[in-house]
């Protein structure tokens, strides 16, 4: 399965994502904010990055922008997790390089299904 870096500042949501993805067979690295995600990307060497949009230190958008400037990691799909599904916000995420948006709240089944779809699309490229 895949190596996934998850950046989410809310501990309960971070733990739910971690449990869901590990249960599905993925290797998960957790970050508590956007700055941590950027610092950990090299060590985690992820095949997929999932980030909350609103986080302390660096927002998901800022962290995505920074990761997309790193040659070794700019091709990695980045998925934003957000409770806000307004078109402008989704467009902002896509503009900074996100591959997809998953709206909160989501069920563990939905999260696993979307992650597998995104990984399959990334493999097909």
As a whole number of angstroms, the C-alpha radius of gyration is: 13 Å
The percent range for strand residues is 15-25%
Number of helices: 5
**What is the share of helical residues?**
40-55%
CATH superfamily: Response regulator
CATH topology descriptor:
Rossmann fold
How many structural domains does the protein architecture include? 1
Please tell me the overall pLDDT.
93
Question: Separation of termini?
Answer: 17 Å
Give the overall shape, derived from the CA principal axes. Answer: globular
**What strand line-up does the widest sheet have?**
2-1-3-4-5
Number of distinct beta strands: 5
- Class inferred from helices and paired strands: alpha/beta
Q: Which architecture per CATH?
A: 3-Layer(aba) Sandwich
Described by strand count, sense and barrel closure, the largest sheet is: 5 strands, parallel
N-to-C order of helices and strands: EHEHEHEHEH
CATH class: Alpha Beta
């Amino acid at each position: 399965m895949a190596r996934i870096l998850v950046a989410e500042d809310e501990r309960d949501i971070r733990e739910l994502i971690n449990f869901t993805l590990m249960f599905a067979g993925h290797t998960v690295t957790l970050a508590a904010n956007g700055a941590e995600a950027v610092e950990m990307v090299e060590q985690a060497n992820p095949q997929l990055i999932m980030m909350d949009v609103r986080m302390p230190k660096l927002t998901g958008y800022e962290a995505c922008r920074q990761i997309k400037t790193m040659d070794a990691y700019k091709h990695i799909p980045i998925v934003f997790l957000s409770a806000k599904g307004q078109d402008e916000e989704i467009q902002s995420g896509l503009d900074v390089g996100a591959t997809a948006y998953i709206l909160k709240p989501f069920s563990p089944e939905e999260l696993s299904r979307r992650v597998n779809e995104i990984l399959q699309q990334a493999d097909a490229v």
